Amino acid sequence: MSSVPPSVHPGDLDARLAQNAAAIEAVLEALLSDAPAVGEIARPPRLLAAMRHGVLGGGKRLRPFLTAETARFLGVPVEQARRAGAAVELLHCYSLVHDDLPAMDDDDLRRGRPTVHKAFDEATAILAGDALLTLAFEVLADEATHESGAVRAALVTSLARASGCGGMVGGQMFDLAAEGRFEAVRGALPEAEIRRLQAMKTGALLAASVEIGARLGGADTAALVALGRYGRALGATFQIADDILDVESDAAQMGKATAKDADKGKGTLVGALGLTGAKRERDRLSAEAVEALAGFGPDAGVLRAAARFAAERKS
Known about the structure:
Elements: H1 10-31, H2 45-55, H3 62-73, H4 78-99, E1 109-110, E2 113-114, H5 116-119, H6 122-141, H7 149-163, H8 168-178, H9 191-216, H10 221-248, H11 251-254, H12 260-264, H13 269-292, H14 301-312
Antiparallel strand pairs: 1-2
Helix pairs in contact: 1-3, 1-4, 2-6, 3-4, 3-9, 4-6, 4-9, 7-9, 8-9, 9-10, 10-13, 10-14, 13-14
């Protein structure tokens, strides 16, 4: 695999990721404060504690990083970029809370800590996920995120399409079906269906993270097309890297259970292509993401480095 472009040293990217994670954490802390927001009646303490448990204190914050960095090189004020990134992260965290439930992936560990339904209870976890989901759209629809109602509507539409029936939620449904939840599965899942499932369940929200930053920055049609190509290739890179890590890493390194895909008979590109073939495809997709940014010059150096990071990460 070729190295990170000279304009962004790997250590610089690590520092940028850490800086962004800290900044997003502060925004999320404020959004999940004890005090009711304007128009709210009260915030139930147990519900709020569960929401905070599911959101704060962990994770790479890659999705809000992509939103904030895309917006940054398009000239968006940092406060607006971080609010939009926080909205994406709220939605991502809702999906994790619900995915971990016994009825879904049935996980006990997330980011090295008990999952929300283990730390609290299933009913509270469901409600916490619901509240995080709706809060994400409230943040995007707020004038503090952008003064233009048309831009805010575009942001909401992007996130809704990526996370709903034709995106992340639909991908989760395909995933459950692939496990044989509803009828017997006959043979291995075809490669094309694995790619579709992964593009929806994981890739759609990663791509939307980039698109939301681009729309916040007023990107023109050509830029939106190029950044869309980047986001989709990055999302696919991230997922296949995750499949590889599920085989090669342990729970302590990942902060969650590993080898569960194989145990459940889930179709992955590691299963379809073999480990060596999956690594080759991961690197190809990472290079495709970098190539999509060819027209943006050095300002997009951090996004190029993020594509390498998605392929090279160890957790």
